[in-house]
Design goal:
This protein is α+β, with helices and mostly antiparallel strands and 415 residues long. It has twelve helices and six strands. It folds into two domains: 32-193, no CATH class; 283-415, Heat Shock Protein 90 (2-Layer Sandwich), CATH 3.30.565. A six-stranded mixed sheet has the order 4-5-3-2-1-6. Strand 2 and strand 3 (332-339) form a beta hairpin.
């Protein structure tokens, strides 16, 4: 139905503007076209009058010159509205031929034939740009003034012809340049809108993957733990069920925040959730942290890394220990997540590098913020994920106390 039409094509690009204009709706102004330049040929009506009334000598020669000028004018103007044709050498040759015909007619007949100089200037304004336009229009105005003086007209006519010649070309070029700029701005605006839609789709897909992948993994692990504990320790099983309810409610909140684009991650929160998920899966979490405090944006990105890394450890690693090492300086911060697992298939060789949708999305996230992500098997076995980012935050803790933070291995909170 017509009421359900959208402003975008199936691939997300803006649909060409072809909607019908309703009653009372203001029509969108369009750029000038070559036909808007044709009515100015009426300035040559005086020359036609001279030919038809027999006031011009050699009327056949004048008629041929008049036909040649009009033909060249139409050709040059139409080429001026096509950028490729306008910049072609053919356009300059046509303009040169038109200049020669104009000079011949103006010098040979004078009078109303001098009005072909402003018409020639209009054609120059449609073809020439920048320095070429400045030199061309100024030179043409000077020549028109000299020819008018040489033909012996009144004191005001030569300057009027010169001024009209200059202003015709300058105004024409200004209007056409402005129209081209407006069209380029419209095209740029459409491209920016299309890019914004693509970025938002990519952000939404990454957030959903990171949010749902991690949350569902935690729910599955805690459900398995509750099933194992139920026969022998109902209280512990109920604790796991309560955690499942809490994780589910938190997931609903995070999905709403992801939809609106206002979700801000917290590294401390993600580390606490990681501890809970790893402990429920029977994996011992260990944290080593040093360096200055981090900026909120850096913490949010590292929180995504922790979430994705823990999801993969719980799903695939078969590990018994997972360590988180966070260190850095005032310029750079590094987070390394290492497990001692064997992976989903111990017999299959593991290829180093970034793999999987989640890690690929994280790699793009960190790269957009000037960071990097590496993932692959560790030298002593297991799997290692290393993220590096600009710290973008002063070392307040170290500067205030004057002592380095504790670098000793520490259990994660609550473990």
């Amino acid at each position: 139905m017509a009421g359900n039409r959208t402003d975008a094509c199936a691939d997300g690009r803006p649909r060409p503007w072809r909607r019908r204009r309703g009653k009372g709706e203001e029509r969108r102004p369009g750029p000038p076209g070559p036909y808007t330049m044709l009515p100015w040929l009426l300035m040559g009506m005086g020359a036609f009058s001279n030919l038809f009334q027999g006031e011009a000598p050699n009327p056949w020669l004048g008629g041929i010159g008049l036909f040649a000028f009009n033909s060249l004018y139409v050709s040059v103007v139409f080429r001026g509205f096509d950028r490729k044709k306008r910049e072609s050498p053919v356009s300059y040759w046509l303009l040169a031929a038109m200049t020669a015909v104009t000079l011949a007619l103006a010098i040979g007949y004078g009078g109303s034939w001098l009005l072909f100089f402003p018409l020639l200037s209009l054609a120059c304004g449609s073809i020439l740009r920048e320095r070429q336009l400045a030199f061309g229009v100024l030179g043409l105005a000077a020549v028109a003034t000299l020819v008018a003086v040489w033909r012996g007209h009144g004191s005001s006519d030569p300057w009027t012809i010169g001024y009209g010649t200059f202003i015709s070309g300058a105004v024409t070029a200004a209007i056409l340049t402005l129209a081209e700029t407006v069209m380029e701005l419209r095209a740029t605006r459409q491209e920016l809108a299309r890019t914004a839609v693509e970025k938002e789709r990519l952000r939404f897909s990454r957030d959903l993957h990171d949010l749902l992948g991690h949350t569902l993994s935690v729910i599955v692990v805690k459900s398995e733990a509750a099933r194992r504990l139920a026969p022998r320790d109902m209280d512990a099983a109920l604790t796991q069920v309560a955690d499942i309810e809490s994780v589910g409610r938190q997931a609903l909140t995070e999905i709403r925040e992801a939809v609106t684009g206002y979700r801000e991650g917290s590294l401390a929160t993600e580390l606490d959730r990681a501890r809970s998920a790893l402990t429920a899966a029977g994996i011992e979490p260990v944290l080593r942290r040093s360096g200055p405090p981090l900026a909120p944006q850096t913490e949010a990105l590292l929180g995504w890394v922790v979430r994705e890394a823990v999801t993969n450890v719980v799903r695939h690693s078969h590990a018994t220990t997972c360590s988180f090492v966070l260190d850095g300086t005032a310029e750079r911060v590094r987070l390394t997540v290492t497990d001692d697992g064997s992976g989903p298939d111990p017999d299959a060789p593991v290829t180093p590098g970034i793999g999987g949708t989640g890690l690929t999305g994280l790699t793009e996230r960190l790269a957009a913020s000037g960071g990097s992500l590496r993932a692959g098997p560790g030298p002593g076995g297991g799997f290692v994920v290393t993220a590096e980012l600009p710290a973008d935050g002063p070392g307040l803790a170290d500067e205030d106390t004057g002592t380095p933070q504790d670098h000793r291995p520490a259990r994660m909170p609550g473990s």
